Amino acid sequence: MLKKLVGITSAIALTLGLAACGGSEKGGSTDSAGSTSAESEATTASVGEQVDYKIIGIDPGAGLMKITIDKVLPEYGLDKWKVVEGSGAAMTAALKKAYDKKEPIIVTGWSPHWKFAKFDLKYLEDPKGVYGGAEDVNTIVRQGLKEEKPDAYKLLDQFKWEPKDIEAVMNLIQEGSEPADAATKWVSENQELVSTWTEGVNKVDGEELKILYVAWDDVIASSNVIANVLESVGYKVKLIQVDAGPMWAGVADGSGDAIVGAWLPTTHADYYAEYEGKFEDLGPNLQGTKLGLVVPKYMDINSIEDLKE
């Protein structure tokens, strides 16, 4: 009897040992490389399956969203895909969460933006050119500003900087500085450039000026910087945060004096066309921007066309 029990016990031990060698704690079988079936399924899943066919977007009023939804998805045949509406802050929060876990994610992106300094990212190639070439960021002012507030007009007209300048301000904000404090620091450290904006501008005595802006990281940075410089020559600047539509409408109807975050010719094209003739375009204050779909570099994908797989 004892011999029989020992035999049964040995058989059970052998069975358990084989099970341990041939399975995983999660219940998946292993392949010859030692990967579980669950792991193999994850690695063989398409990019769409990995991200649930979702592209993390920003605020619904942005031209970047309109291009992505109305043009990019149909042009590339991405019928299964959905662009999730949100905000710039929500998009970067989702990106950080996925990036920290090395998880796949696709977001609507633009540069200059602090996320490219914070994370190792790449734009997906756009072989059809749907997003267009590089955009400019223009300064738009209300009609009559030149006559009523000529020195503000002159300063705004002379406002020009480069992506590296605005990204420095954006990084200060991202690292914890208040936008106004970041602007003060950057202005104090870049007086040579700032002096080209204020050249020939006379001091004023507390005249009020309203700058309208959307809550995009780059526009927050540029609006605070220009407000700081305008205040240095005596203007009392009021920064008013609104959505893109009201921002353009405000300059068009004169309730706002200026905006320095007009992305053209693509992102704000609809607003430009809607209100054309009711504002003055002072031209680019920043050149060398870009729009598109952005992913972490650890993702094995390089083109928007790859999303069809």
TrEMBL record:
- Record's keyword terms, sorted: Cell membrane, Membrane, Signal, Transport
**Signal peptide location in the record?**
1-19
Q: Does the keyword rRNA-binding apply?
A: no
Main subcellular location of this protein, as a coarse class: membrane
ABC-type glycine betaine transport system substrate-binding domain: which residues?
46-188, 208-308
- Tell me the compartments it is located in: Cell membrane
> Does the record's keyword annotation contain Ribonucleoprotein?
no
Q: What is this protein called?
A: Glycine betaine/proline transport system substrate-binding protein
Organism annotation: Ammoniphilus resinae
Specify the taxonomic lineage. Answer: Bacteria, Bacillati, Bacillota, Bacilli, Bacillales
